[in-house]
Amino acid sequence: MYLWLKFFHIFFIIAWFAGLFYLPRIYVNLALAQTPEEYSRLLIMAQKLYKFMTPWGIGALIFGTLMLAQLPAAGWTHGKLTIGILLAAYHIACRQLLIAFEQQRNRHSHKWYRVFNEIPVFALLAALYLVLFKPF
């Protein structure tokens, strides 16, 4: 049973991270958009991607939690759970930023979004480290 949970967790993680990596990249371009047509096209892309990635994130969190319930409590499992919670918060922050773009109330520069875009990369590195090396 555990291997099936792990299988689906990894599947959902891959799909979710595709969105977590690309959505903020769309935000970079939205912040740079020169014309209303370009802004509208990018906004539609962002809205569709957010709707696409949300179920994948929910699946990743569900299967990850089910896996953790079958493992003995260890420091690395707590760390991995913390990363999952932080990624869920990042996902919600992406929604808030999307709402700001929908209302044309963006307050951030394209440079800010370039930095924001790197957060999931470091979260993925940390999660992989914890899972592979189980340091605690």
UniProtKB/TrEMBL annotation:
Heme binds at residues 9, 80. One of its GO terms (molecular function) is metal ion binding. It catalyses: protoporphyrinogen IX + 3 A = protoporphyrin IX + 3 AH2. Keywords: Cell membrane, Heme, Iron, Membrane, Metal-binding, Oxidoreductase, Transmembrane, Transmembrane helix. Pathway: Porphyrin-containing compound metabolism; protoporphyrin-IX biosynthesis; protoporphyrin-IX from protoporphyrinogen-IX: step 1/1. It is an enzyme of class 1 (oxidoreductase). Pfam families: UPF0093. Its EC number is 1.3.99.-. The chain crosses the membrane at residues 6-28, 49-69, 81-101, 113-133. Homodimer. This is Protoporphyrinogen IX oxidase. It comes from Kingella oralis ATCC 51147.
